[in-house]
Design goal:
It contains two helices and no strands. By secondary structure, the protein is mainly α. Helix 1 packs antiparallel against helix 2.
Length: about 60
Amino acid sequence: MSKAKAKAKQVKGKIKEGAGGAVDDTRMQAEGRTEQVTGKAEEMTSKASGKVKKTTGTS
């Protein structure tokens, strides 16, 4: 997954968490937090992959 898609997932999760709080839906809040964490992990994976490619000279 690209860094941009991972960031988008984080933003979507933040919005979902906020919406869940607004309507007092704890499940929606939890789903939003999960999406944020997943997006952050995917972003870190993408960054690490890019560094490995840069270090090894592969594309």
